[in-house]
Amino acid sequence: MGLKGFERRLERLVEGVFARAFKSSLRPVELGRRLVREMDDQRTVGVRGQTAVPNHFTITLGPEDHEDLAGVEESLARELTDAARNHAREEGYVFMGPVEVHINLDPDLRTGSFGLSARFKEGEGGGSPWVLVLPGGERIHLTAAPAVIGRGADATVRLSDTSVSRRHAEVRPNADGYVVVDLGSTNGTRVNGAGITERQLHDGDTISVGDSQLKIKAS
Fold this sequence. Notes:
alpha+beta; 5-stranded mixed β-sheet; 5 helices
């Protein structure tokens, strides 16, 4: 389980920096539990029948907890972001945009207490939660329009790889998300190492075109 993994990682971290950071009764794992509970409570069915959940989370801490957390804030935010993504993957949820976790100060909160708000925040790409991660790390948001992968100047996702055809493959939206279709390329298209003509895509799949690999992710 995503949250279980989050809890196990925090158990290890608590022996070090988190133990020093959290002097109060507040424990980081409480934040993770509350975050995924908000995802479950606010889930909604979208127009494609997919279950969408909040992707933008704001955690508020009292002055003492916020000060104690200052040195590990980024690490905790990353862990919480991973917990949200893993929980969504396990439950079949989708996001409207990238997952964000922000930790803010609330001077009215007492030590050991926290607030957490969750909302839907549309990302680039007309609300699509899906992105293609290119070999160099660049992220291309998928939209309702097909995205051509290739070496040609008119490709949506343009690669300089000479083993890639000018119009190599196309990622198209369908009722279940996106499919990738080979466009009669010279060297073929593979998904997770298997050659394909057309294949439904899932979060974490690797699309290989020529010598290049692209990862599809739910943001």
